[in-house]
Design a protein that fits this description.
Blueprint (H helix, E strand, L loop, with lengths): L11 E6 L4 E6 L2 E11 L2 E9 L8 H16 L2 E4 L2 H9 L21
Parallel strand pairs: 4-5
Antiparallel strand pairs: 1-2, 2-3, 3-4
């Protein structure tokens, strides 16, 4: 069995596979990581990210997040970072914080029921 290709952020190919609701990262044609999501009109919730152990620490997860968030921005979608990896990545990259979904209550707190 041969060693998997080494990931370089320039060589990570990320694509949205809408049939299975996930972004896939490939290195040298090999599946290196995935980011599962739930999409509704105007909102995409990233729920789970997984990187093959052979590719950990090589930028595959970051490539998944950056690509998917760039696409969300292009589509005008807000992002709900349910996945801790997404939440942590966004907290370290302030340029993407504006994508985060924030629920605005429509009810005034008047104390009555």
């Amino acid at each position: 069995m041969s060693e998997p290709p080494t990931a370089d952020p320039q060589t990570v190919d990320v694509r949205d596979d809408t049939e299975v609701n996930r972004y896939e990262a490939r290195v040298g044609g090999q599946l290196a990581g995935t980011a599962q999501y739930i999409r509704t009109p105007g909102l995409i919730a990233f729920v789970h990210t997984e990187v093959d152990p052979a590719y950990e620490g090589q930028g595959v997860g970051g490539a998944l997040v950056r690509h998917s968030l760039d696409e969300a921005r292009e589509q005008g979608a807000a992002v709900l970072a349910v996945c801790p990896f997404y939440a942590g990545w966004i907290s370290r990259h302030p340029a993407y914080r504006d994508l985060l979904y924030s629920e605005q209550s429509r009810a005034a707190d008047g104390g009555t029921r």
